[in-house]
Design goal:
The structure is a homodimer. Helix content of chain A is 40%, strand content 17%. Chain A is an alpha/beta fold. The longest helix of chain A has 29 residues. Chains A and B meet through strand 3, strand 4, helix 18, strand 18 and strand 19 of A and strand 3, strand 4, helix 19, strand 18 and strand 19 of B. Strand 19 of chain A pairs parallel with strand 18 of chain B, so a sheet runs across the interface.
């Protein structure tokens, strides 16, 4: 992608179009593929990209957000974001508009947007992704300072990976819309005569879309739904979490630029802003013309959304993610891998494991059985070593997005015995950053009673189960009742029971990572390949890789015309 | 298909497999295609097929239904079907089982069925369709005597067309399941090293399926959902309407034969039976493990089903279907076409037009404007001529399925002025058949107040609207609020407003038949081609042609394995 830095927009668009064509094949193969470069190196993005992005971010602080093209008449300006690294308010304000006015504008915009030819919509969305790519480093710094993510994650997940997921959604939409571009000559023999009809198929979005963002991965989680809805002709109102507006505001700005460039209304994709005290999400969601909702966030609001009649709803809520460790060829490699999974962004990923189960007889290793307590100690040591390594710890852990997370951990997940206490971690660049290393507790009694909620944040419970079967059974029943987004198992793949165990987890919607060691983790979900959030349990149904992620947003209606002169 | 009569099962299966491969292409082209022969001629089905089917049907009367292979221990035998042609009870009883027991058996069966390889499931369902084909004439007589349809419709819609729709669902399922049969080698470069994973994708049905049948088109409406669910690995409980059990009982028997032939549990597809007085549909639908529901029937029960949380629901409820007549090159051809649409099965099709709108200025014809009253008279004459033609009328009209339909028409649809009264029609073969020719009324004032419900049964209102625009607007707003399944427009396609008008109807989910004359009608929806029930309005969302019709029944979960030796 080196050449992309200096080429013209036309060439870049051409290059993107070719990549998205390849993406289409990659989706069928589900092999590794990326449209955007994940390495934030000058080699790919130019010598000054990082400094420019940082400078652009810093220039935004303390001012009204600029560059939105939507009608902001009558807006009050609001913004309450605080950096978990500096503890200071960003001071950026955004135009907060009356929700009814936003919906009215979106309804008007739908008439304009739904009749744009599908290929033109796809092309325009590709332009928007190129706009977004120009802001990758700005997005990275913005994401870092609203979510608390370390820079590398903020860049990768917030920018290229989010853009890849958007490209995946656009590619899937292109495939599906293409299936309906049929000019059918329907000729039915009727004895000596025939009926000749021309049939056409019209794709119509179900209505206005609403994207409700989250505070931890604002672009990674929301861009796919936003781009999927736009691709099928539905205007989108983007309502970020009030504590993580900036990354999505930049994304909306990029989309609006592409819309206006094409002579279309910027209200096809509008930013909606609220505050923690005066939320507008319910008001927007309950509007009758808002038919499509993409939501990422806590389960209780997600469960409320599920009660709204007549909505096409895609959710990513909370899950209880379990790693089951029965066997380890290399115990050190296994605990290192799990320690990284636990530490990464301080357990604030929806895919992070907060519960690790081991059988009472211990973990089978070449050196014999490792007792649960010894396993827990080994894990704690690995977590402690990573957390307190000044060259890695602070950057892997990042900061705690919301002070409420730390408050909650004081009273939840307190079962069993403490093996490792969470400790304050200093960040070399941000004095007073809100940081805490993960705690580890060992639960030898009543694991069923200890596994009750997600335990979002830097903490992990090691639960001792009588047998592997019991661990599988408990993991599955918890997932069925409360949801799960990721899962891992460490055991002998040649064991007779292995296939059944994996199937038992799969059938409650848990994707299983088997015996992962090295630099690949159960928390990770790659675009064009992984089924992130399966729909098989209450954790959510917004599975981008699934054809439903596109097709549920629209309906198809067929018209019949008599073929003339027959 | 002549050769199919005498060939062996193996050859017939081969022939069916080839047809279903062609069906897969036909779905992309949406050109005319059929797997099963719709002409009930001896040429295709053999000299004795009709007589044999009739004899088999008659031999069933007055006895417990035989041949189901499911566990019927503890069943009480119930059956209250009455022929609208003879007025007599069929006297066939069916095993009525405890709904909880049915669900428990289905849960058990899912463990067996979901692990059958997708290709084997598809193959087995093809076998079931061949079993079903053997019973086409029995199905035809059964359908005739529970629904009141004329023989030709009972044969075509009940047997080959229903089987075609099942084949369409199976074909779509085969395509989709095939997309997940990926053996992905996911290799991600990481600087000097790479991560190598094997990723697999597992398709899991959401749970048990429930198919709730209707009393007018039991097989045509229910087979697609039954076969779609079975194809994705979900066991199905088939609960026919208590007044139209026999056709679905025969279908379930065919499926059970194919299951048992393959050494599988017949409980993968069970028949559930109830009576009008003691319905069990709610009890079944509310079972937590019943996750997928296909429903055809009245809107009020459908609306109740929509309130159940956590279900994947496919509905076909009622709609208000409108034909708008602004222009006719050949007025006679237009009223003939509409008269047939109104008469066909006495307006008991969910796609029948019960409301025809004309502009106040009249219908434009080469002979000048035809005033609304004159148009209504011409339509009434055509309906009367068809209804009272002893060689055509009784066979096109069929009988009235439910006496409640006639009762309801005494008090509803009474706006305006009567142009044609419904009249008793004699059937040449069935004395005392429950028959009534369609009535026609002309509504010149307050059309908005007159168009309030479906008017299911033999009646049609001609509504006078100030302009075509007003007709389009009223049709669209009624569809948006109450649903619509079909629509027709007669106007000059070169008129500047034509495209907008069609789009205005399309965007509320109305498929538009344009200027149909001759032997093709707005009521008809062909397999492999038409989008019957679009999901764009409250009439329902069970649109077989849509990929959702399959994909919403399952979720996909991905597993990751480290590629060994790397």
């Amino acid at each position: 992608m080196e050449e992309m830095v200096d080429t013209t927009l036309q060439q870049r668009l051409q290059s993107l179009a070719e990549k998205m064509e390849k993406a289409s094949e990659a989706i069928y193969e589900r092999a590794y593929f990326s449209v955007f470069e994940e390495n934030p190196s000058p080699k790919f993005y130019g010598e000054t990209a990082d400094a420019d992005g940082k400078a652009e971010f810093e220039a935004m602080l303390g001012k009204p957000f600029e560059g939105l093209l939507q009608d902001t008449e009558g807006a009050s300006y609001k913004g309450v974001e605080v950096s978990p690294y500096t503890g200071k308010a960003l001071g950026i304000t955004y135009p907060a508009l009356d929700p009814n006015a936003l919906v009215a504008k979106a309804i008007e915009a739908q008439l304009e947007w739904e009749i744009v030819a599908p290929d033109d919509r796809i092309g325009l969305l590709m332009m928007a992704l190129l706009e977004f790519e120009k802001s990758f480093f700005t997005i990275a710094h913005a994401t870092m300072h609203v979510t608390g993510q370390g820079f590398m994650m903020a860049f990768q997940a917030g920018a290229p990976h989010a853009a890849d997921r958007a490209a995946e959604a656009v590619t899937l939409a292109g495939q599906q819309l293409g299936n309906w571009e049929v000019v059918s000559e329907w000729r039915k023999p009727m004895g000596k005569t025939e009926i000749a009809l021309h049939k056409e198929y019209i794709v119509i979005p179900h209505g206005i879309s609403l994207a409700l963002g989250c505070s931890t991965f604002p672009t990674w989680n929301s861009l796919p739904g936003i781009f999927a809805s736009l691709a099928v002709g539905s205007p989108v109102i983007v309502k970020p979490h009030p504590l993580a507006i900036l990354p999505l505001a930049i994304a909306v700005r990029c989309i609006q630029r592409a819309l206006v460039e094409a002579g279309l209304s910027p209200e096809i994709c509008q930013l909606a802003v609220d505050t923690v005290e005066e939320p507008i999400a319910k008001h927007l969601a309950e509007q009758p013309k808002v038919k499509i909702i993409d939501y990422t966030g806590g389960s209780s609001f997600g469960n409320y959304l599920e009660t709204l009649p007549g909505k096409v709803l895609f959710t990513e809520k909370a899950g209880i993610n379990v790693a089951i460790v029965a066997q380890a060829d290399d115990l050190n490699a296994v605990v290192q891998n799990l320690a990284f999974s636990v530490c990464l962004y301080s357990g604030q990923m929806c895919t992070a494991p907060h519960h690790i189960m081991v059988p009472a007889e211990g973990v089978t290793t070449p050196a014999g059985k490792i007792a649960p307590a010894d396993f827990a100690k080994a894990l704690a040591e690995a977590i402690n070593a990573l957390s307190t390594n000044p060259k890695a710890g602070p950057f892997v852990l990042g900061a705690i997005q919301n002070p409420a997370t730390l408050e909650r951990l004081k009273t939840t997940g307190q079962a069993g015995e403490e093996i490792l206490a969470g400790a304050a971690i200093a960040h070399p660049m941000f004095e007073g950053a809100r940081m805490l290393s993960p705690s580890v507790r060992l639960v030898t009694q009543n694991p069923e009673a200890a596994i009750t909620e997600e335990l979002f944040g830097p903490t992990v419970l090691v639960l001792v189960l009588p047998t592997i079967e019991a661990a599988i059974h408990l993991t599955a029943s918890v997932a069925e009742e409360k949801g799960a987004i990721s899962g891992a198992i460490y055991m002998d793949e040649a064991d007779d029971r292995f296939v059944d165990y994996v199937h038992s987890l799969n059938r409650v919607g848990i994707p299983v990572s088997v015996n992962l060691t090295g630099p690949i983790y159960m928390n990770q979900n790659a675009a064009f390949s992984d089924m992130h959030v399966t729909g098989g349990n209450p954790a959510g149904n917004g599975s981008i890789g699934s054809p439903d992620f596109i097709s549920r947003r629209f309906f198809v209606v067929g018209n019949k015309y008599v073929i003339k002169g027959e």
